[in-house]
Amino acid sequence: PSQAPAMAQEWGAAAASPAKRLSGSGEVLERPEENGHASKRLRRDAEEAEAEDPNKKSPKRKIVLLMAYSGKGYHGMQRNVGSSQFKTIEDDLVSALVQSGCIPENHGEDMKKMSFQRCARTDKGVSAAGQIVSLKVRLIDDILEKINNHLPSHIRILGLKRVTGGFNSKNKCDARTYSYMLPTFAFAHKDHDVQEELYRLDKETLEKVNKLLACYKGTHNFHNFTSQKGPRDPSAKRYIMEMYCGEPFVRENIEFAVIKVKGQSFMMHQIRKMIGLVIAIVKGYAAEAIIERSWGEEKVDVPKAPGLGLVLERVHFEKYNRRFGNDGLHEPLEWTEEEEKIAVFKEQYIYPTIINTEREEKSMANWLSTLSIHDFSSSAVGMQANKKNSK
């Protein structure tokens, strides 16, 4: 144990050198007293550091953490200070960062102090296999192990990388990939009496699903796919790079399929509504033309599929990697070495939660029974416009 602070110091110093060149003296210095119980060890660290460099005391470094979590039972990713009855993933993360000694306690209360930024705000109940957060921490020894020791098993930090001082995981992210795992009986036509466990998706239906999902590719006005934007809000325009449904597979007697979608960025509920509308069309509740119509200005009633199956798969930093990934000082933000851990986490925590919750709470089956309540027919304005167009 007596070696640990020295080792931490060596790693901190080695890791610090590139940042020294980058951000000069713009580092935030810490007072050892801020973390009472560890102050002796920190003082010893600080004395050793001072011997090497009298101006430095336990500097903080900008890093990114690769996170995976099962979102069931949480009110999303983002912390809501002041509404503690709604537990979020960040509540558990911040508490682990404080307990492991990476950040002083007051940074947990005011997250700006550690320049905290999450890459994507996932909604209530949504999981992640590759969420990224950026923040400033003290690079303590065995940092990942120590943080994970203070986290519940369904939240894991799988990787850590040093980044440039000005890095912000939300602004620097140029694309996000989500997956949505759903039981295939969601695509059974409404007029067919279907036994959920016996339903198997045929090739024609899967082709139809993929033809519809492909309609979303490109840039469209998605104001009908969120409750937050009006039709003329420029930020409702979003760019989708790919969207498709993979081959079905059976788990615990139920057949499932996974839809993948990659886009620049998504608005609240957007993906769930994109999928909800395709399900409504395939089931025979809505006409195919409704997708085209939803890009227009009129309000279209778009149903929102359950949050349960949605998983943030990965976030992409292609521009950042091109600029800093091979500059000799920084690593590219790619996680090939962590792929294995990500896959294991999904198999252990994410997929079983989706499958078991579907079996016990029937979230998809219950939601499907609400589709008939939606009004998918055109508004009066829309019908007149359609008449004009057909002339």
From TrEMBL:
<comment type="subunit">
    <text>Monomer. Forms a complex with RARG and the SRA1 RNA in the nucleus.</text>
</comment>
<dbReference type="InterPro" id="IPR020103">
    <property type="entry name" value="PsdUridine_synth_cat_dom_sf"/>
</dbReference>
<feature type="binding site">
    <location>
        <position position="178"/>
    </location>
    <ligand>
        <name>substrate</name>
    </ligand>
</feature>
<dbReference type="Pfam" id="PF01416">
    <property type="entry name" value="PseudoU_synth_1"/>
</dbReference>
<dbReference type="InterPro" id="IPR020095">
    <property type="entry name" value="PsdUridine_synth_TruA_C"/>
</dbReference>
<feature type="region of interest" description="Disordered">
    <location>
        <begin position="1"/>
        <end position="58"/>
    </location>
</feature>
<dbReference type="GO" id="GO:0005634">
    <property type="term" value="C:nucleus"/>
</dbReference>
<keyword id="KW-0819">tRNA processing</keyword>
<comment type="function">
    <text>Pseudouridylate synthase that catalyzes pseudouridylation of tRNAs and mRNAs. Acts on positions 27/28 in the anticodon stem and also positions 34 and 36 in the anticodon of an intron containing tRNA. Also catalyzes pseudouridylation of mRNAs: mediates pseudouridylation of mRNAs with the consensus sequence 5'-UGUAG-3'. Acts as a regulator of pre-mRNA splicing by mediating pseudouridylation of pre-mRNAs at locations associated with alternatively spliced regions. Pseudouridylation of pre-mRNAs near splice sites directly regulates mRNA splicing and mRNA 3'-end processing.</text>
</comment>
<feature type="active site" description="Nucleophile">
    <location>
        <position position="123"/>
    </location>
</feature>
<dbReference type="GO" id="GO:0160147">
    <property type="term" value="F:tRNA pseudouridine(38-40) synthase activity"/>
</dbReference>
<dbReference type="GO" id="GO:0003723">
    <property type="term" value="F:RNA binding"/>
</dbReference>
<dbReference type="InterPro" id="IPR041708">
    <property type="entry name" value="PUS1/PUS2-like"/>
</dbReference>
<comment type="similarity">
    <text>Belongs to the tRNA pseudouridine synthase TruA family.</text>
</comment>
<keyword id="KW-0507">mRNA processing</keyword>
<protein>
    <recommendedName>
        <fullName>Pseudouridylate synthase 1 homolog</fullName>
        <ecNumber>5.4.99.12</ecNumber>
    </recommendedName>
</protein>
<dbReference type="InterPro" id="IPR020094">
    <property type="entry name" value="TruA/RsuA/RluB/E/F_N"/>
</dbReference>
<feature type="compositionally biased region" description="Basic and acidic residues">
    <location>
        <begin position="28"/>
        <end position="37"/>
    </location>
</feature>
<dbReference type="GO" id="GO:1990481">
    <property type="term" value="P:mRNA pseudouridine synthesis"/>
</dbReference>
<dbReference type="GO" id="GO:0006397">
    <property type="term" value="P:mRNA processing"/>
</dbReference>
<dbReference type="InterPro" id="IPR001406">
    <property type="entry name" value="PsdUridine_synth_TruA"/>
</dbReference>
<feature type="domain" description="Pseudouridine synthase I TruA alpha/beta">
    <location>
        <begin position="216"/>
        <end position="318"/>
    </location>
</feature>
<dbReference type="InterPro" id="IPR020097">
    <property type="entry name" value="PsdUridine_synth_TruA_a/b_dom"/>
</dbReference>
<keyword id="KW-0539">Nucleus</keyword>
<keyword id="KW-0413">Isomerase</keyword>
<dbReference type="GO" id="GO:0031119">
    <property type="term" value="P:tRNA pseudouridine synthesis"/>
</dbReference>
